[in-house]
Amino acid sequence: MDLYNQYFLDHAKNPRNTKVLKHADFQANEVNTSCGDRVKVQFLIKGAKVQAISHQTDGCMVAKFSASVLSEKLVGKTVEEVQKMTPQDLTKLLGVELTMSRLKCAMLPLMAIQKALKI
Fold first, then answer.
1. Overall pTM > 0.70
2. Within a domain: residue 1?
């Protein structure tokens, strides 16, 4: 799937799950020092599963797209499944082809999520 398709543009321009979770179980921040992208993620966990994810992303469209999609698609996954995600898993989940420089942007939200879930 091409990077700038309608699915990508919709998530990048109208990111989902951006409201702050007031009673988050976990949260973390990540910054891409090479480009300045920033992401903050928050979680609600019930049992060993992700119940809700919120993000506040200040960065490029790829970072926003990735954070938005992850905030939807990781709900219901176990903490262990999320912690074990690789760049290849992320690319498959996002459904787009990414260059190495764009993969770094897409990985930023996942890095924050995995950082938050280090229990």
1. yes
2. no
